[in-house]
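Changelog note: in this version the structure field was regenerated for every chain. One regenerated record is shown below for reference.
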Amino acid sequence: MHRILLHRNAVKFYRKADGTLKERIADAIDVITRNPHLDSHIRKLKGELKHMHRFRMGDLRILYEIDQAL
């Protein structure tokens, strides 16, 4: 299992979200926590953000970085 650290803007967005969206976000974070590399909604980014991944959730994207040192 991996540890998740949220950016303050992500926390702010989550707090303002309605119940259904909060549940979807929590489910997505659970998937990322279990396996941050493999899922049909996960893609490695390119260009300037090549060190990051994104999890697609409808119109929303969760961007995250995997720190192997932790």
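Spot check on this record: The CA atoms of residues 14 and 22 lie 6 Å apart. Strands lie at 42-44, 52-57, 60-65.
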